[in-house]
Sequence to fold (292 residues):
Amino acid sequence: MTLSAAAAGTFTIGGDLTVNRMGYGAMRITGDGIWGEPKDKPGAIATLRRAVELNVNLIDTADSYGPYVSEDLIAEALSPYPSGLVIATKGGWERVGPGKWTHNASPKHLVAALEGSLKRLRLDRIDIYQLHVPDPAVSFEASIEALSRLRDEGKIRHVALSNVTKEHIQRAQKIVPIVSVQNRYSFADRESDFIIDYCEQQGIAFFPWAPLGQVRDEAHDALKKEATALNATPLQVALAWLLKRSRVIIPIPGTSSVKHLEENVAAGALVIPEPSYERLSAVTVAPASLRG
Fold:
């Protein structure tokens, strides 16, 4: 079987962006602490190019990854972009050092952030632009209204959200259509279950970040058991479980390794039998708090 992200199936975001349901998260191609240049820049470039070769046509990034490094690498590796490649980026979170993040979702900053992303990514319009996280010091509506204006100006095709509650989504929808939500979610971290259900009802795509994270203890043992039976790795089973969990879920596992990328993409072809899925879904997982 040919290795391809298309094996995961497709989902149409916002009515006009059809993507394969195995995306790629470009946070890990930066340096330690998501700060600075990667230790292996040629490896990062090779991983991005291999992703596209494997028919990954959704790449998720943010201006804060590096900062700016991830977006610069994407453009260096892939521009001019192949037809159908969707790049989703984010604004509203700034960096002051390795592992350090600060809020800034003021309308003025979001405009500047969007302009910076357009320049770095070498694009005239961002297909999916996400508010990275609500800013407690700024009116949420003011942040969304700023993105709505940028959409009206043609600089954003679709507006999206990240690290939000169901209330945030509903408040944003009163201002502008929301096409995707990105929250932390995985087999072993299901705090956003009810948000996924809402997204499914609304036809909104859901990008789980850290889709392979928090897998430990009883959850890890359950994955290992099913993986052995399915001749797969535990992480592949975790990704396949996400794909089966809801038609709107588009995993975006990140890596700076071509080998790991290929392992992740291969999970798109893994079919979890219903009994296995039910056993995995019945595993009790401890709730984890939402993090920006």
Summary: The chain has a mean pLDDT of 94.
